[in-house]
Amino acid sequence: MTSAASGTTDPLHSPVVRLVRVSEHAAAAAAPGAQAPLSAEERERAAKFVLQADRDRYLVAHLALREELGRLLGLAPQDVPFTRADCPVCDGPHGRPSVPGDPVHFSLSHAGDLVALAFAAAPIGVDVEQYPSVAAAIQTTSALHPSEQVELAALAPDALPAAFARCWTRKEAYLKGTGSGLGEDPALTYVSALDRPARVPGWQLTDLTVPDGYAAASALRQTGARGEGADAERADVPSPAESPTESATGSPTGGGPGESEPG
């Protein structure tokens, strides 16, 4: 595994993000006995995938998650317990996956050949996506914040897939961090489709370095901070008279599920 957060190994002092190549670990994950650390529910879910590529991605992701959490918690991977926080949208028991007592917060995402894992002392979300086609980006843009739609509409078609993926991963990471997921309208919170993430009160959005053809981002809750959802929309949104270029110069770089299951 490789780290996208250079020099960070302790999530209690700095968020740790790890990237895993599915193709480098799929054979080991499928070997006899390799799936023993997984719960019966996880093994059952893996067995239901029709495509081998989907099964490989799931197994590599969940084995890596248990391995990392076990190391951080001083537990065997199979002994890592999972629960769910209450959903902040409806208060149901299907919110952000967590470890009881939250000794460490985590998030998991996977797409294509990449798995992204994030760990921190505070709530964190991570998302990785492959670039969509131009047609798919155009079709999905209407789900975004109005200012993000304006930013994407100003781009040449060949620049749209990367910009859309950049925006979407920031948004997914934030929504996974809050635990809302897509239970919150993705048009509500502005994260920007430009080169640098927008400021979202109470959260630190960071674009992650990933291979060509992918975009990834993390969202870390700032200790003692307040402000999410509708309040976050007002943080860094360009005014109607402000062009995307002008907005880019005023948007500072963020410092420093997707899946909704454990991982």
From TrEMBL:
Q: List keywords of the entry alphabetically.
A: Transferase
Which residue positions does the secretion signal occupy?
A: none
According to the UniProt record, one GO cellular component term is: cytosol
Q: Which GO terms describe its molecular function?
A: holo-[acyl-carrier-protein] synthase activity; magnesium ion binding
- Record keyword Transferase present: yes
Q: Which InterPro entries match?
A: 4-PPantetheinyl_Trfase_dom, 4-PPantetheinyl_Trfase_dom_sf, AASDHPPT_N, P-Pant_transferase_sf
Question: Ranges of Gly residues compositional bias?
Answer: 252-263
| Any Pfam family | AASDHPPT_N
Which residue range or ranges hold the 4'-phosphopantetheinyl transferase N-terminal domain? Answer: 37-118
SUPFAM superfamilies in UniProt:
4'-phosphopantetheinyl transferase
Tell me where on the tree of life, at the top rank, the source sits.
Bacteria
Q: Bias regions of kind Low complexity — which residues? A: 242-251
Annotated 4'-phosphopantetheinyl transferase domain ranges read 123-194
Q: Where is this region: Disordered?
A: 221-263
A Gene Ontology biological process noted in the UniProt record is:
lysine biosynthetic process via aminoadipic acid
Q: Which family does it belong to?
A: Belongs to the P-Pant transferase superfamily. Gsp/Sfp/HetI/AcpT family.
What is the name listed in the Swiss-Prot or TrEMBL entry for this protein?
A: 4-phosphopantetheinyl transferase
- Give the organism, scientific name: Streptomyces reniochalinae
